[in-house]
Amino acid sequence: GDRLLLNTNTLTPLLKRMQETGLVERSRSQMDERVVMVALTTKGQELKERALDIPAQLVSSLEYPVDKILELKKGLDEFLLNLRSLEKLS
Known about the structure:
This protein has about 90 residues and is mainly α. The chain has helices at about 10-20, 40-50, 55-60, 65-90; strands at about 25-30, 35-40. Strand 1 and strand 2 (about 35-40) form a beta hairpin.
């Protein structure tokens, strides 16, 4: 959730649908039942592997300089880091 900047109320239905379609398995942590462990199934791993080429395909289809894309990503990463810092203060 933290990496995707998604709250539990957003993640839970997504993960439930992913489990129903056989992409992930969910289980409760034995140490802390509030923690849900999520693991890819074989089907989920296959989908992940098929999706690995998507970023490169997207970049090549944009016809936009890679250095500009990397610069933009760096700026967005800094922006998100600042947002997270503000969230922790409130």
